[in-house]
Write a structure and sequence with these properties.
The protein is of the alpha+beta class and 548 residues long. It has two domains: 264 residues, PAS domain (Beta-Lactamase), CATH 3.30.450.20; 169 residues, Heat Shock Protein 90 (2-Layer Sandwich). 48% of the residues lie in helices and 21% in strands. A five-stranded antiparallel β-sheet has the order 2-1-5-4-3, sandwiched between helices. Strands 7-6-10-9-8 form a five-stranded antiparallel β-sheet. The longest helix is centred in the middle third of the chain and has 80 residues. The chain is rod-shaped. The two termini are 47 Å apart.
Amino acid sequence: MAGPSHPEAFRAERQFTRSVFAGLVLLGLVAVAGPLLSYRGDVLEVRGQFRTRTAREARVYAQALSLHLKLLKSELSRVAAGVGPDMQEDKATEDMQDLATPDAGLFRQGILLLDAAGRPVWSEPPGLPVTPSLRERPWFQRVLAQQAPTVDALAPGSSTFVVAVPVVRKNRTAGMVVGLLDTGEELPGAQPTGENLTLLVLNRHGDLFVPESPPAWATAPGFAAKVESLLTEGGQEWELLAGKVFAWATPVPGTELRLVLAADETATLAPIRDRLLLQLLVLAVLQVGTLLLFSLHWRRVYQLYLRMERRAAEKETMAALGSAASLIAHEVKNSLNGLKAAIGILSPSEEQGLAVRTIRGQIDRLAHLATSLLHFGKPSRVHCIPVDLPHLVREVLDGLRVLPEAEEVRVEAQLGGELLLLGDPLLLATALDNLVRNAMEAAVAAKDLGQVASPEVRVRLRRQDGEAVVEVEDNAGGPPPDFENRLFEPFVTSKPKGVGLGLTMARRAVEQQGGRLTFTRIPGGSRFSLHLTVQPPHDSPDIQELSA
Protein backbone atom coordinates (compact mmCIF):
# COMPACT_ATOMS: atom_id res chain seq x y z
CA MET A 1 0.00 0.00 0.00
CA ALA A 2 1.29 3.44 -0.89
CA GLY A 3 1.83 5.93 1.93
CA PRO A 4 -0.04 9.25 2.09
CA SER A 5 2.89 11.03 0.52
CA HIS A 6 2.60 9.09 -2.70
CA PRO A 7 1.52 11.26 -5.67
CA GLU A 8 -1.33 8.91 -6.54
CA ALA A 9 -2.66 9.16 -3.00
CA PHE A 10 -2.52 12.96 -3.17
CA ARG A 11 -4.40 12.94 -6.47
CA ALA A 12 -7.03 10.62 -5.02
CA GLU A 13 -7.40 12.85 -1.96
CA ARG A 14 -7.78 15.99 -4.08
CA GLN A 15 -10.32 14.27 -6.34
CA PHE A 16 -12.31 13.08 -3.33
CA THR A 17 -12.25 16.56 -1.77
CA ARG A 18 -13.37 18.17 -5.02
CA SER A 19 -16.17 15.63 -5.35
CA VAL A 20 -17.37 16.27 -1.81
CA PHE A 21 -17.31 20.05 -2.21
CA ALA A 22 -19.02 19.76 -5.60
CA GLY A 23 -21.73 17.71 -3.90
CA LEU A 24 -22.11 20.36 -1.18
CA VAL A 25 -22.33 23.12 -3.79
CA LEU A 26 -24.93 21.11 -5.70
CA LEU A 27 -26.94 20.61 -2.51
CA GLY A 28 -26.67 24.35 -1.84
CA LEU A 29 -27.93 25.15 -5.32
CA VAL A 30 -30.82 22.72 -4.92
CA ALA A 31 -31.65 24.26 -1.55
CA VAL A 32 -31.57 27.79 -3.03
CA ALA A 33 -33.53 26.78 -6.14
CA GLY A 34 -36.59 25.92 -4.05
CA PRO A 35 -37.08 29.39 -2.52
CA LEU A 36 -36.23 31.07 -5.83
CA LEU A 37 -38.82 29.04 -7.75
CA SER A 38 -41.34 29.61 -4.98
CA TYR A 39 -40.56 33.32 -5.02
CA ARG A 40 -40.99 33.47 -8.78
CA GLY A 41 -44.32 31.65 -8.59
CA ASP A 42 -45.53 33.87 -5.73
CA VAL A 43 -44.48 37.02 -7.60
CA LEU A 44 -46.29 35.95 -10.75
CA GLU A 45 -49.42 35.03 -8.82
CA VAL A 46 -49.47 38.19 -6.68
CA ARG A 47 -48.64 40.39 -9.66
CA GLY A 48 -51.46 38.81 -11.70
CA GLN A 49 -53.93 39.29 -8.85
CA PHE A 50 -52.72 42.84 -8.28
CA ARG A 51 -53.06 43.80 -11.94
CA THR A 52 -56.48 42.18 -12.21
CA ARG A 53 -57.64 44.12 -9.16
CA THR A 54 -56.16 47.34 -10.56
CA ALA A 55 -58.01 46.90 -13.86
CA ARG A 56 -61.25 46.08 -12.04
CA GLU A 57 -60.92 49.12 -9.77
CA ALA A 58 -60.23 51.34 -12.78
CA ARG A 59 -63.39 50.15 -14.54
CA VAL A 60 -65.49 50.47 -11.39
CA TYR A 61 -64.23 53.99 -10.82
CA ALA A 62 -64.87 54.93 -14.45
CA GLN A 63 -68.46 53.71 -14.09
CA ALA A 64 -68.88 55.65 -10.85
CA LEU A 65 -67.45 58.79 -12.46
CA SER A 66 -69.71 58.32 -15.49
CA LEU A 67 -72.77 58.04 -13.28
CA HIS A 68 -71.77 61.15 -11.34
CA LEU A 69 -71.25 63.15 -14.52
CA LYS A 70 -74.56 61.85 -15.88
CA LEU A 71 -76.22 63.15 -12.72
CA LEU A 72 -74.58 66.54 -13.18
CA LYS A 73 -75.69 66.75 -16.80
CA SER A 74 -79.20 65.72 -15.81
CA GLU A 75 -79.42 68.44 -13.18
CA LEU A 76 -78.15 71.08 -15.61
CA SER A 77 -80.62 69.85 -18.25
CA ARG A 78 -83.38 70.51 -15.72
CA VAL A 79 -82.01 74.01 -15.20
CA ALA A 80 -81.81 74.56 -18.99
CA ALA A 81 -85.45 73.52 -19.35
CA GLY A 82 -86.47 76.33 -16.97
CA VAL A 83 -84.74 79.08 -18.97
CA GLY A 84 -87.25 81.42 -20.60
CA PRO A 85 -87.63 82.09 -24.32
CA ASP A 86 -85.56 85.25 -24.16
CA MET A 87 -82.80 83.58 -22.05
CA GLN A 88 -84.34 84.87 -18.86
CA GLU A 89 -83.99 83.07 -15.57
CA ASP A 90 -87.68 82.31 -15.12
CA LYS A 91 -88.07 78.97 -13.28
CA ALA A 92 -84.32 78.19 -13.38
CA THR A 93 -83.38 80.57 -10.62
CA GLU A 94 -84.37 78.34 -7.70
CA ASP A 95 -82.78 75.26 -9.25
CA MET A 96 -79.53 77.12 -9.90
CA GLN A 97 -79.37 78.31 -6.33
CA ASP A 98 -79.88 74.78 -5.04
CA LEU A 99 -77.12 73.40 -7.27
CA ALA A 100 -74.61 76.13 -6.44
CA THR A 101 -74.87 76.30 -2.65
CA PRO A 102 -71.35 76.51 -1.13
CA ASP A 103 -71.83 73.56 1.27
CA ALA A 104 -74.06 70.98 -0.37
CA GLY A 105 -74.39 72.01 -4.02
CA LEU A 106 -73.19 69.90 -6.91
CA PHE A 107 -71.52 72.95 -8.52
CA ARG A 108 -69.95 74.83 -5.66
CA GLN A 109 -67.83 76.89 -8.03
CA GLY A 110 -70.94 78.29 -9.64
CA ILE A 111 -73.33 78.05 -12.63
CA LEU A 112 -73.35 80.24 -15.75
CA LEU A 113 -75.95 80.91 -18.42
CA LEU A 114 -74.17 81.82 -21.68
CA ASP A 115 -75.68 83.01 -24.93
CA ALA A 116 -74.67 81.66 -28.31
CA ALA A 117 -71.84 84.21 -28.49
CA GLY A 118 -70.34 83.03 -25.21
CA ARG A 119 -71.41 86.09 -23.24
CA PRO A 120 -72.70 85.53 -19.70
CA VAL A 121 -76.42 86.28 -19.32
CA TRP A 122 -76.55 85.59 -15.58
CA SER A 123 -74.73 83.51 -13.00
CA GLU A 124 -75.07 81.97 -9.59
CA PRO A 125 -73.56 83.39 -7.54
CA PRO A 126 -74.07 86.74 -9.23
CA GLY A 127 -71.02 88.45 -10.64
CA LEU A 128 -69.11 85.21 -11.22
CA PRO A 129 -65.90 86.13 -13.10
CA VAL A 130 -65.71 84.52 -16.53
CA THR A 131 -62.85 84.27 -18.99
CA PRO A 132 -63.79 86.44 -21.99
CA SER A 133 -62.76 83.97 -24.71
CA LEU A 134 -65.10 81.09 -23.88
CA ARG A 135 -66.48 81.08 -27.41
CA GLU A 136 -63.09 79.81 -28.67
CA ARG A 137 -63.00 76.85 -26.33
CA PRO A 138 -63.32 73.41 -28.02
CA TRP A 139 -66.05 72.32 -25.63
CA PHE A 140 -68.12 75.49 -26.41
CA GLN A 141 -67.88 74.86 -30.12
CA ARG A 142 -68.73 71.19 -29.62
CA VAL A 143 -71.94 72.02 -27.69
CA LEU A 144 -72.99 74.53 -30.34
CA ALA A 145 -72.38 72.12 -33.18
CA GLN A 146 -73.70 68.88 -31.65
CA GLN A 147 -76.38 70.33 -29.34
CA ALA A 148 -75.36 67.66 -26.79
CA PRO A 149 -74.01 67.95 -23.23
CA THR A 150 -70.24 67.73 -22.80
CA VAL A 151 -67.65 67.55 -20.04
CA ASP A 152 -64.24 69.13 -20.44
CA ALA A 153 -61.67 71.42 -18.91
CA LEU A 154 -62.52 75.08 -18.70
CA ALA A 155 -59.15 75.80 -20.32
CA PRO A 156 -56.11 73.69 -21.25
CA GLY A 157 -54.25 72.72 -18.10
CA SER A 158 -57.01 74.08 -15.85
CA SER A 159 -58.22 72.09 -12.84
CA THR A 160 -61.71 73.55 -13.27
CA PHE A 161 -64.22 71.24 -14.90
CA VAL A 162 -67.10 72.44 -17.01
CA VAL A 163 -70.33 70.52 -17.55
CA ALA A 164 -72.10 72.26 -20.43
CA VAL A 165 -75.74 71.61 -21.42
CA PRO A 166 -77.24 73.39 -24.50
CA VAL A 167 -80.39 75.53 -24.38
CA VAL A 168 -82.19 74.63 -27.59
CA ARG A 169 -84.96 76.76 -28.98
CA LYS A 170 -86.60 75.92 -32.32
CA ASN A 171 -83.78 73.53 -33.22
CA ARG A 172 -81.25 76.27 -32.62
CA THR A 173 -78.75 76.52 -29.81
CA ALA A 174 -79.73 79.73 -28.10
CA GLY A 175 -77.15 79.34 -25.38
CA MET A 176 -75.96 76.92 -22.75
CA VAL A 177 -75.94 76.31 -19.02
CA VAL A 178 -72.43 75.69 -17.72
CA GLY A 179 -71.69 74.22 -14.30
CA LEU A 180 -68.21 74.79 -12.87
CA LEU A 181 -66.44 72.16 -10.75
CA ASP A 182 -63.20 72.17 -8.82
CA THR A 183 -61.88 68.68 -9.56
CA GLY A 184 -59.78 68.71 -6.42
CA GLU A 185 -62.86 68.95 -4.18
CA GLU A 186 -66.10 68.24 -6.00
CA LEU A 187 -65.27 65.20 -8.14
CA PRO A 188 -65.16 61.61 -6.85
CA GLY A 189 -61.58 60.35 -6.84
CA ALA A 190 -60.03 63.66 -6.04
CA GLN A 191 -58.49 61.88 -3.03
CA PRO A 192 -56.30 58.77 -3.41
CA THR A 193 -58.33 55.57 -3.63
CA GLY A 194 -55.65 53.55 -1.80
CA GLU A 195 -51.97 53.35 -0.93
CA ASN A 196 -49.53 53.19 -3.84
CA LEU A 197 -52.31 54.12 -6.31
CA THR A 198 -52.42 57.18 -8.55
CA LEU A 199 -55.73 58.14 -10.23
CA LEU A 200 -55.65 60.30 -13.35
CA VAL A 201 -58.59 61.75 -15.35
CA LEU A 202 -57.84 63.54 -18.62
CA ASN A 203 -59.37 64.37 -21.94
CA ARG A 204 -58.20 63.10 -25.28
CA HIS A 205 -55.92 66.12 -25.66
CA GLY A 206 -54.05 65.23 -22.50
CA ASP A 207 -55.47 67.92 -20.22
CA LEU A 208 -55.47 66.51 -16.70
CA PHE A 209 -58.42 67.11 -14.40
CA VAL A 210 -57.52 64.78 -11.59
CA PRO A 211 -55.45 65.03 -9.48
CA GLU A 212 -54.96 68.70 -8.78
CA SER A 213 -51.20 68.19 -8.49
CA PRO A 214 -50.37 65.39 -10.92
CA PRO A 215 -47.01 63.53 -10.81
CA ALA A 216 -44.27 64.77 -13.10
CA TRP A 217 -44.43 61.71 -15.37
CA ALA A 218 -48.11 62.43 -16.10
CA THR A 219 -47.30 65.87 -17.47
CA ALA A 220 -44.44 64.74 -19.73
CA PRO A 221 -44.83 65.22 -23.49
CA GLY A 222 -46.47 62.31 -25.25
CA PHE A 223 -48.40 61.15 -22.18
CA ALA A 224 -51.73 61.42 -24.01
CA ALA A 225 -50.42 59.14 -26.77
CA LYS A 226 -49.35 56.59 -24.15
CA VAL A 227 -52.83 56.68 -22.68
CA GLU A 228 -54.38 56.06 -26.10
CA SER A 229 -52.13 53.00 -26.52
CA LEU A 230 -53.28 51.77 -23.14
CA LEU A 231 -56.90 51.94 -24.31
CA THR A 232 -56.16 49.55 -27.19
CA GLU A 233 -53.57 47.25 -25.58
CA GLY A 234 -54.87 47.02 -22.03
CA GLY A 235 -52.54 47.39 -19.04
CA GLN A 236 -48.87 48.15 -19.45
CA GLU A 237 -45.83 48.31 -17.23
CA TRP A 238 -44.19 51.72 -17.32
CA GLU A 239 -40.56 52.33 -16.43
CA LEU A 240 -40.42 55.59 -14.46
CA LEU A 241 -37.63 57.40 -12.67
CA ALA A 242 -39.08 56.30 -9.34
CA GLY A 243 -39.40 52.69 -10.49
CA LYS A 244 -41.92 50.55 -12.32
CA VAL A 245 -45.70 51.07 -12.18
CA PHE A 246 -48.54 49.14 -13.72
CA ALA A 247 -51.01 51.43 -15.52
CA TRP A 248 -54.49 50.64 -16.75
CA ALA A 249 -56.60 53.04 -18.86
CA THR A 250 -60.32 52.92 -19.57
CA PRO A 251 -62.75 55.43 -21.14
CA VAL A 252 -65.34 57.11 -18.95
CA PRO A 253 -68.66 55.98 -20.45
CA GLY A 254 -70.79 58.76 -21.92
CA THR A 255 -67.86 61.19 -22.08
CA GLU A 256 -64.66 61.79 -23.99
CA LEU A 257 -62.64 61.47 -20.83
CA ARG A 258 -60.02 58.83 -20.07
CA LEU A 259 -59.32 57.38 -16.67
CA VAL A 260 -55.88 56.00 -15.80
CA LEU A 261 -55.09 54.05 -12.63
CA ALA A 262 -51.33 53.61 -11.98
CA ALA A 263 -50.29 51.20 -9.25
CA ASP A 264 -46.84 50.80 -7.70
CA GLU A 265 -46.21 47.07 -7.32
CA THR A 266 -43.11 47.52 -5.18
CA ALA A 267 -44.96 47.78 -1.88
CA THR A 268 -47.17 44.81 -2.78
CA LEU A 269 -44.21 42.60 -3.67
CA ALA A 270 -42.04 43.80 -0.78
CA PRO A 271 -43.30 41.18 1.75
CA ILE A 272 -42.61 38.38 -0.73
CA ARG A 273 -39.13 39.75 -1.41
CA ASP A 274 -38.44 40.12 2.31
CA ARG A 275 -39.56 36.52 2.88
CA LEU A 276 -37.21 35.35 0.12
CA LEU A 277 -34.31 37.29 1.62
CA LEU A 278 -35.05 35.77 5.02
CA GLN A 279 -35.13 32.28 3.53
CA LEU A 280 -31.87 32.89 1.67
CA LEU A 281 -30.30 34.22 4.85
CA VAL A 282 -31.38 31.14 6.80
CA LEU A 283 -30.08 28.91 4.00
CA ALA A 284 -26.78 30.81 3.93
CA VAL A 285 -26.38 30.37 7.70
CA LEU A 286 -27.22 26.68 7.40
CA GLN A 287 -24.80 26.25 4.49
CA VAL A 288 -21.99 28.01 6.35
CA GLY A 289 -22.71 25.94 9.45
CA THR A 290 -22.75 22.78 7.35
CA LEU A 291 -19.43 23.70 5.75
CA LEU A 292 -17.87 24.41 9.13
CA LEU A 293 -19.14 21.14 10.61
CA PHE A 294 -18.08 19.29 7.49
CA SER A 295 -14.63 20.88 7.60
CA LEU A 296 -14.18 19.86 11.22
CA HIS A 297 -15.49 16.37 10.57
CA TRP A 298 -13.47 16.04 7.36
CA ARG A 299 -10.32 17.14 9.14
CA ARG A 300 -10.89 14.53 11.83
CA VAL A 301 -11.74 11.82 9.31
CA TYR A 302 -8.79 12.78 7.13
CA GLN A 303 -6.39 12.60 10.07
CA LEU A 304 -7.85 9.22 11.00
CA TYR A 305 -7.45 8.12 7.41
CA LEU A 306 -3.79 9.19 7.40
CA ARG A 307 -3.16 7.35 10.66
CA MET A 308 -4.81 4.21 9.40
CA GLU A 309 -2.96 4.43 6.11
CA ARG A 310 0.32 4.98 7.93
CA ARG A 311 -0.34 2.07 10.26
CA ALA A 312 -1.30 -0.19 7.38
CA ALA A 313 1.88 0.78 5.54
CA GLU A 314 3.89 0.18 8.73
CA LYS A 315 2.29 -3.21 9.23
CA GLU A 316 3.13 -4.28 5.70
CA THR A 317 6.66 -2.97 6.07
CA MET A 318 7.05 -4.55 9.50
CA ALA A 319 5.72 -7.86 8.25
CA ALA A 320 8.27 -7.93 5.44
CA LEU A 321 11.08 -6.75 7.67
CA GLY A 322 10.03 -9.13 10.41
CA SER A 323 10.27 -12.14 8.10
CA ALA A 324 13.71 -11.08 6.92
CA ALA A 325 14.82 -10.20 10.46
CA SER A 326 13.71 -13.57 11.82
CA LEU A 327 15.67 -15.42 9.13
CA ILE A 328 18.80 -13.31 9.68
CA ALA A 329 18.54 -13.55 13.49
CA HIS A 330 18.17 -17.32 13.35
CA GLU A 331 21.34 -17.71 11.28
CA VAL A 332 23.24 -15.22 13.43
CA LYS A 333 22.25 -17.03 16.60
CA ASN A 334 23.46 -20.33 15.24
CA SER A 335 26.85 -18.77 14.50
CA LEU A 336 26.97 -17.08 17.92
CA ASN A 337 26.34 -20.36 19.68
CA GLY A 338 29.40 -21.83 17.92
CA LEU A 339 31.49 -18.78 18.87
CA LYS A 340 30.39 -19.05 22.50
CA ALA A 341 31.39 -22.72 22.57
CA ALA A 342 34.77 -21.88 21.00
CA ILE A 343 35.50 -19.02 23.38
CA GLY A 344 34.72 -21.27 26.34
CA ILE A 345 37.71 -23.49 25.38
CA LEU A 346 40.16 -20.56 25.59
CA SER A 347 42.04 -20.19 28.86
CA PRO A 348 41.31 -16.87 30.54
CA SER A 349 45.01 -16.24 31.27
CA GLU A 350 46.40 -12.76 31.83
CA GLU A 351 47.70 -12.60 28.29
CA GLN A 352 44.41 -13.74 26.72
CA GLY A 353 42.04 -12.23 29.30
CA LEU A 354 41.53 -8.92 27.51
CA ALA A 355 40.91 -10.61 24.16
CA VAL A 356 38.51 -13.13 25.73
CA ARG A 357 36.53 -10.40 27.51
CA THR A 358 36.37 -8.33 24.32
CA ILE A 359 35.17 -11.27 22.23
CA ARG A 360 32.58 -12.20 24.84
CA GLY A 361 31.32 -8.59 24.95
CA GLN A 362 30.93 -8.50 21.19
CA ILE A 363 29.22 -11.90 21.21
CA ASP A 364 26.77 -10.62 23.86
CA ARG A 365 26.09 -7.51 21.77
CA LEU A 366 25.39 -9.61 18.69
CA ALA A 367 23.24 -11.97 20.74
CA HIS A 368 21.19 -9.03 21.97
CA LEU A 369 20.79 -7.81 18.39
CA ALA A 370 19.72 -11.26 17.21
CA THR A 371 17.22 -11.55 20.09
CA SER A 372 15.80 -8.11 19.20
CA LEU A 373 15.41 -9.15 15.58
CA LEU A 374 13.67 -12.37 16.58
CA HIS A 375 11.28 -10.56 18.90
CA PHE A 376 10.62 -7.94 16.21
CA GLY A 377 9.81 -10.56 13.61
CA LYS A 378 7.64 -12.65 15.97
CA PRO A 379 6.17 -10.53 18.80
CA SER A 380 5.84 -12.53 22.00
CA ARG A 381 2.51 -13.30 23.57
CA VAL A 382 1.77 -11.62 26.88
CA HIS A 383 1.71 -13.90 29.94
CA CYS A 384 0.86 -11.81 32.99
CA ILE A 385 2.01 -13.05 36.37
CA PRO A 386 2.80 -11.25 39.63
CA VAL A 387 6.00 -9.27 39.21
CA ASP A 388 8.09 -7.56 41.86
CA LEU A 389 9.10 -4.57 39.77
CA PRO A 390 12.06 -3.32 41.87
CA HIS A 391 13.56 -6.83 41.87
CA LEU A 392 13.07 -7.07 38.08
CA VAL A 393 14.82 -3.70 37.53
CA ARG A 394 17.76 -4.84 39.69
CA GLU A 395 18.13 -8.02 37.66
CA VAL A 396 18.18 -6.01 34.42
CA LEU A 397 20.82 -3.65 35.79
CA ASP A 398 22.92 -6.56 37.02
CA GLY A 399 22.73 -8.22 33.62
CA LEU A 400 24.04 -5.09 31.92
CA ARG A 401 27.17 -4.89 34.05
CA VAL A 402 28.94 -7.22 31.58
CA LEU A 403 28.70 -4.62 28.80
CA PRO A 404 31.92 -2.87 27.84
CA GLU A 405 30.23 0.51 28.52
CA ALA A 406 29.47 -0.51 32.12
CA GLU A 407 33.05 0.25 33.20
CA GLU A 408 32.74 3.89 32.01
CA VAL A 409 29.18 4.73 33.07
CA ARG A 410 28.05 5.43 36.61
CA VAL A 411 24.61 3.85 37.00
CA GLU A 412 22.53 5.20 39.88
CA ALA A 413 19.34 3.34 40.93
CA GLN A 414 16.58 4.50 43.28
CA LEU A 415 14.10 1.64 43.43
CA GLY A 416 12.48 1.81 46.86
CA GLY A 417 10.65 -1.09 48.52
CA GLU A 418 8.48 -3.90 47.18
CA LEU A 419 6.01 -3.01 44.40
CA LEU A 420 3.91 -5.84 43.00
CA LEU A 421 1.94 -5.65 39.79
CA LEU A 422 0.69 -7.90 37.01
CA GLY A 423 2.91 -8.10 33.99
CA ASP A 424 5.00 -10.21 31.67
CA PRO A 425 8.48 -10.28 33.23
CA LEU A 426 10.16 -11.22 29.96
CA LEU A 427 8.61 -8.31 28.02
CA LEU A 428 9.23 -5.88 30.91
CA ALA A 429 12.85 -6.99 31.17
CA THR A 430 13.26 -6.57 27.39
CA ALA A 431 11.86 -3.03 27.53
CA LEU A 432 14.00 -2.03 30.52
CA ASP A 433 17.08 -3.64 29.02
CA ASN A 434 16.67 -1.64 25.81
CA LEU A 435 16.10 1.65 27.65
CA VAL A 436 19.07 1.30 30.02
CA ARG A 437 21.35 -0.14 27.32
CA ASN A 438 20.54 2.79 24.97
CA ALA A 439 21.18 5.27 27.80
CA MET A 440 24.55 3.73 28.63
CA GLU A 441 25.65 3.61 24.97
CA ALA A 442 24.54 7.22 24.41
CA ALA A 443 26.38 8.44 27.54
CA VAL A 444 29.63 6.73 26.52
CA ALA A 445 29.30 8.12 22.97
CA ALA A 446 28.86 11.61 24.44
CA LYS A 447 32.02 11.16 26.49
CA ASP A 448 33.98 9.97 23.43
CA LEU A 449 32.85 13.12 21.58
CA GLY A 450 33.96 15.31 24.50
CA GLN A 451 30.45 16.43 25.36
CA VAL A 452 30.49 15.13 28.96
CA ALA A 453 33.30 14.27 31.33
CA SER A 454 31.46 11.71 33.45
CA PRO A 455 28.76 9.57 31.80
CA GLU A 456 25.79 8.96 34.10
CA VAL A 457 22.57 6.96 33.94
CA ARG A 458 19.86 7.29 36.60
CA VAL A 459 17.06 4.77 37.10
CA ARG A 460 14.20 5.70 39.45
CA LEU A 461 11.05 3.79 40.38
CA ARG A 462 8.06 5.56 41.97
CA ARG A 463 4.29 5.39 42.29
CA GLN A 464 2.14 8.16 40.79
CA ASP A 465 -1.68 8.31 40.45
CA GLY A 466 -2.15 4.55 40.59
CA GLU A 467 0.74 3.86 38.22
CA ALA A 468 4.24 2.49 38.57
CA VAL A 469 6.66 4.79 36.77
CA VAL A 470 10.19 3.73 35.86
CA GLU A 471 12.34 6.66 34.68
CA VAL A 472 15.64 6.16 32.85
CA GLU A 473 17.69 9.35 32.50
CA ASP A 474 21.08 10.05 30.95
CA ASN A 475 23.34 13.08 30.51
CA ALA A 476 24.15 12.42 26.83
CA GLY A 477 22.58 15.65 25.55
CA GLY A 478 19.49 14.06 24.01
CA PRO A 479 18.69 13.08 20.42
CA PRO A 480 18.84 15.61 17.57
CA PRO A 481 15.66 17.78 17.40
CA ASP A 482 14.66 16.36 14.03
CA PHE A 483 14.64 12.82 15.50
CA GLU A 484 12.25 13.48 18.41
CA ASN A 485 9.08 12.72 16.43
CA ARG A 486 10.58 9.52 15.02
CA LEU A 487 12.22 8.05 18.10
CA PHE A 488 9.87 5.08 18.27
CA GLU A 489 9.83 4.26 14.56
CA PRO A 490 11.58 0.99 13.65
CA PHE A 491 14.99 1.18 11.99
CA VAL A 492 15.27 4.92 12.70
CA THR A 493 18.35 5.75 14.76
CA SER A 494 20.84 8.57 15.23
CA LYS A 495 23.67 6.24 16.29
CA PRO A 496 26.25 5.39 13.59
CA LYS A 497 26.14 1.66 14.39
CA GLY A 498 22.58 1.45 15.70
CA VAL A 499 19.80 -0.65 14.20
CA GLY A 500 16.82 1.39 15.50
CA LEU A 501 14.85 -1.45 17.09
CA GLY A 502 15.45 -0.92 20.82
CA LEU A 503 12.89 1.84 21.47
CA THR A 504 10.41 0.31 19.05
CA MET A 505 10.47 -3.00 20.86
CA ALA A 506 10.40 -1.32 24.27
CA ARG A 507 7.25 0.65 23.37
CA ARG A 508 5.62 -2.45 21.86
CA ALA A 509 6.40 -4.51 24.98
CA VAL A 510 4.94 -1.85 27.30
CA GLU A 511 1.82 -1.22 25.21
CA GLN A 512 1.12 -4.96 25.03
CA GLN A 513 0.65 -4.84 28.81
CA GLY A 514 -1.60 -1.75 28.78
CA GLY A 515 1.18 0.69 29.64
CA ARG A 516 2.84 3.54 27.80
CA LEU A 517 6.35 4.78 27.11
CA THR A 518 7.08 8.53 26.85
CA PHE A 519 10.10 10.67 26.08
CA THR A 520 11.02 13.98 27.71
CA ARG A 521 14.00 16.18 26.92
CA ILE A 522 15.68 17.34 30.12
CA PRO A 523 18.58 19.74 30.65
CA GLY A 524 21.69 17.94 29.45
CA GLY A 525 20.03 14.70 28.41
CA SER A 526 16.94 12.54 27.96
CA ARG A 527 14.31 10.90 30.11
CA PHE A 528 12.27 7.85 29.10
CA SER A 529 9.32 7.09 31.39
CA LEU A 530 7.72 3.67 31.50
CA HIS A 531 4.13 3.83 32.94
CA LEU A 532 2.41 0.65 34.15
CA THR A 533 -0.93 0.29 35.91
CA VAL A 534 -0.56 -1.04 39.41
CA GLN A 535 -3.08 -3.87 39.96
CA PRO A 536 -2.74 -6.04 43.06
CA PRO A 537 -2.20 -9.67 42.06
CA HIS A 538 -5.06 -11.05 44.19
CA ASP A 539 -7.61 -8.85 42.31
CA SER A 540 -6.79 -10.32 38.93
CA PRO A 541 -8.82 -13.21 37.47
CA ASP A 542 -5.69 -14.30 35.61
CA ILE A 543 -3.87 -14.86 38.91
CA GLN A 544 -6.76 -16.74 40.39
CA GLU A 545 -6.74 -19.00 37.34
CA LEU A 546 -2.99 -19.52 37.66
CA SER A 547 -3.32 -20.31 41.35
CA ALA A 548 -6.01 -22.86 40.67
